[in-house]
Prior knowledge:
The chain has 281 residues and is of the alpha+beta class. The protein has two domains: 14-224, 2-Layer Sandwich (BirA Bifunctional Protein, domain 2); 230-276, SH3 type barrels (Roll). It is 23% helix and 27% strand. This is biotin--[biotin carboxyl-carrier protein] ligase. GO terms for molecular function: ATP binding; biotin--[biotin carboxyl-carrier protein] ligase activity. Residues 20-208 form the BPL/LPL catalytic domain.
Amino acid sequence: MTGRGGDKPDELDGLALREELVAPNGPYAALDVVASTGSTNADLLTAAADGAADRTVLIAGAQTAGRGRRDRGWVSPAGTGLYLSVLLRPAAVPAERLGTLSLVAGLALLHAAERAGVSGATLKWPNDLLVGGTKCAGVLSEVAHDGSARAAVVGVGLNVHPPGVDVPAGPGSLPAGSLAEQGAKVTDRTELASAWLRAFAELESAWRDAAGDAGASGVLTAYRAACGSLGQRVRAELPDGSTRVGVAEDVEPDGKLLIKQDDGVRHVLSAGDVVHLKNDG
């Protein structure tokens, strides 16, 4: 049964997801659902080292040590969110293009929000899902160190219902939100997991067929259209503690953000937190 509005979602149905999404019926090699784990990304990084197959999926009902970008924690209580990771082995994709997988994952989040019946969702660079001025989801993409084999793990955390616990605000005091709070008509986590995984598989296949070229695959055009950061006045908080303030002009083919400062100097950012500022500065 599909969860509606503010109703609590059903339990994750691993059997239904495997029947729908795992070969020969679907695009994935393996899919496992666990009640709880420390981190789905960490588990699949370990699995990669042990030889797990390309397109292996792990979904958890809860995480006790969920992680976001820049080693921040991701609050992942039971029964309220969707926490999943996918192990990929795109052998023909150059290592320097693996970072654009986060664009692919972000676009798949938009599909999941659409399936939930939520309108007005956008992406904040690099890959946060924003709805109604709140952050409802995020992406963590990591390279798996598996000897000479090229592998990556892409993880997403999607708040379907309010977590029910305090969640620290993000950079710029960006509050956490959930799809249910933004008027979601569908809140069944199995259904939303299926929506994200199907969208991700389609987008990732096009990306892989183009050897990870975001432009040639169509990923870049779609991401630019969905990125609410573009055209905004922003403050970029960089990993070294410095900041850049200006207008976000473009997302480049390698996924980096181009910012034009007030003095006309342009900077290309590969990492950092972007805060959307009011137009009056």
